[in-house]
Amino acid sequence: MMGCLKTLAIAAGLILIAGAVAGIYLLLQADAYSRIALERGLRYALGVDITTGNITIHPLDGRFVAHDIVIGNPPAFKPGPAIEIQRLSIEFQKTTLFSKSPTIRRMILEGVRFHLHHEIGQGTNLGALAKQAAGSGQSGAIHGRSFVLRELRCEEARMRMSSNLLPIGSAGINLAPFTLADLGDRPVSIGGIAAILMRSVFREAITLKGLLNPVIRLLQDESSQLDTTTRE
After folding, report:
1. In Å, how far are 9, 11, 19, 88, 106 from 5, measured between CA atoms?
2. Which of 207, 199, 202, 206 is nearest to 227 (CA)?
3. How far apart (Å, rounded) are the C-alpha atoms in residues 56 and 188?
4. Could you give the number of structural domains in the chain?
5. What is the pTM of this model?
C-alpha cells in the first residue's frame, strides 16, 4: 500500500513538473510570436525596417512589454533610426482580449528618441512615417487587427533635429511628458495608433519655447499635412 502511494506521489510530482515546463515553454513561444507579430505589424503600418529587443507577457495582468524598439527611416531618406523606444508597455482590458477589437487601457512609451531629419523636396522622415501610418491606419482598421485605445502616454522623450538645407543646426530638445485620454470608442489599427502618437509629438514640439522660426514652421507644416491626411 505504501509503495503504491509512493508511486502515485512520484507520478503526480512528475506531472506537475512536466506541466510547469510546458507552461514555461508556451510562454516563451508566446513571447517569440509576439515579437514577430509586433515587428510585422509596425512594418506594415510604417513601411520601414523594424527591430525589437526583449518582449515579455504578463498574462495575469493583461500586460505586454517590449524593449529596444528601433523604427528605421523611410526609403527616401538615408538608412538609420527614425524613432527609438526603450520601453513600450501595453495594458489590455482582460475581458476584451478575445474580442474583435481588444481594449487597450493604457499604452506607455518610455525613453523615446525621435530623430527628425529634413530633406529638401522630401519633407521630414517623421512626417513621411506619420503619413504612411495614417494611410495604413485608415485601411487597417477596416481590413486588419484593430484596438480601442483608452489612453496613450509618452514619457522621457527627446527629439534631435537636422536638415540638409534649413538653418536649424543639429538641435536636440526635450519633450514634456504628455498623456492623451478620452480617445473615443472607435477601433484603430497599429498604423492609426502610430499616427495619433506622431501628430501629438509635432504639436507638443511646436509649443516649446526657444525654437528657431524655421523649426517652428517646419513642425507646423508637418502637423497640418498630417491633420489633412487623417481627415481624408
Report:
1. 6, 10, 21, 50, 50
2. 199
3. 23
4. 1
5. 0.76
